[in-house]
Amino acid sequence: MSAATEDLNDAQLIDLIKTRNQAAFDEFYRRFEKKVYHFIRQKLNDPFEAYDILHEVFMEVWRQAERFEGRSKVSTWVFGIAFNKSVDRLRKRKHDQLDEEEYETQADEEGLSPMELVSATEEATFLHKCVEALSEAQRAVVQLAFFEDMSYPEIAEIIGRPEGTVKTRIFHAKQALKRCVEKFTGARL
Amino acid sequence: MTDISRNELDKLLPFYVNGTLTKEEKEAVEKQLTDDPAFEAERQYLVALHSKIQEQEMEGSPGELGLARLKASIQKETEAVPPTLNKPAPEQDNVVQGWWKPVAIAACLGLAVMSTAQINTAFMDDGMTTASGGVSSGQVLQIFFEEAATEKDIRMLLRQKQLNIIEGPTALGFYRVELIGNDKKPIASVIRELEGHGAISEVLEE
After folding, report:
1. Model confidence pLDDT, tens digit, residues B131-166
2. Which of A162, B65, B74, B175 could pair with B168 in a Cys bridge, judged by C-beta atoms 3.0 to 4.6 Å apart?
3. Measured between alpha carbons, how far is residue A114 from residues A140, B18, B41, B44, B185 in Å?
4. What is the mean pLDDT of residues A68-96?
5. Distance between CA A152 and CA A141 in Å, rounded?
6. Lowest-confidence segment of A122-126, B31-35, B40-44 by average pLDDT
7. Which domain holds residue A48?
8. Residues of B in contact with A121 (CB under 8 A)
9. Nearest-10 crossing angle of helices B37-54, B23-35
10. Which residues constitute the domain of residue B184?
């Protein structure tokens, strides 16, 4: 049975999940689990919460598969669920969040030349720390654009914001990353 | 070709790098790349950035352990659905329910093995430690407590139900507990009692 489900595309798996097909659900989980967990983990910065949210996301897939109408890609739908659940969890957290717009403005000043940054980003450690330092809103779009290779219309659908916001957000995130890498490398500021 | 402003092209460049622009947008970006060395340098930076982010390692995800937990939750949910008066259960549903039972048992057994393996690998990177060696001589359960449960709630519950923590909290957030005073009570009954407690969100049998 699993050999058969492996050959199905994402939408076909969802159609089977609608009929409560367990093998299809298993295959769907195995196909998306790592990426969705990575996305949630990046957003929440907490492995325990990420595990809980991942569980909730796939429970939602099981419960709500019937509502998926195929108007968007399956991956967009799943990441949308993950995004919304992560946002809900973040809202529950007590500590203050850095104001996104303020952060973006601060990070928007010019620093290293692009070519200098090419070599600066040779150090993946710096980059990892810099991505973590982004606001959670920026981190989400960076992950979706650069890790999942999603288009800006897809990202807009996932995060429930206009396409223009996605483009602006990733533009500012890119600038913030430049500035952050400069700090780590001690290069020209 | 639509005339796209330089500002807009700057915003499109990340999506040029990840290969998701429309044909028209792509052509506009490529024209700018030819005409503007600074824009081309920016592209090179984004290519490096994209490449490094793609190289990120996926943190240790729950894997099969997560699937086992899902199956247990789904089975619990399925069993919790009350029978309807007007709609007899279709034959196929019976097949589904029957299918779940051995899977759920296997999942619970699998949890014990996989949790040990996973905790010792990826999740341990996050600084988790276990309370003890996890050695038990009796019946062991995995308990997930509610987020709001306090240490006092947990302590009182353990005392009331005669449970002994042998490991936890694990990286996945559950405690492994041993039953020390419920020898004569069926395990299913103990689990039902525990699941009825407000501080507990889920109980799994190992």
Report:
1. 444 555 677 787 877 767 777 677 778 877 778 777
2. B175
3. 23, 18, 6, 7, 69
4. 86
5. 9
6. A122-126
7. 2-92
8. 45, 48-49, 52
9. 120
10. 64-76+94-205
B149 touches chain A (CB under 8 A): no
Residues A24 and A53 grouped into a single domain: yes
Task: Please tell me whether residues B154 and B108 are part of one structural domain.
Answer: yes
Q: In 10 A of CB A106, how many CB atoms?
A: 14
Looking at the structure, tell me whether residues A16 and A68 fall in a common domain: yes
Contact yes or no for B173 and A52 at CB 8 A = yes
Q: Are residues B40 and B10 in the same domain?
A: yes
Q: How many domains does chain B have?
A: 2
Residue where a domain stops, chosen among A92, A116, A138? A92
Please tell me the total count of domains within chain A: 2
* ipTM here: 0.74
The verdict on A62 touching B (C-beta cutoff 8 Å) is yes
Interface test with A, best of B13, B17, B45, B128 (most A CBs within 10 A): B45
**pLDDT recorded at residue B18:** 95
**Residue A59, Ramachandran bin (φ over 0: left; ψ between -120 and 50: alpha; else beta):** alpha
Which residue of chain B has the CA closest to A126?
B52
CATH of the domain at A22: 1.10.1740.10
Domain-located, residue B83? no
CB contact under 8 A, B56 and A147: yes
Give the integer Cα–Cα distance in Å for B148 and B169. 15
Q: Inter-chain contact B49–A121, Cβ cutoff 8 Å?
A: yes
Q: Find the mean pLDDT for residues A23-43.
A: 93
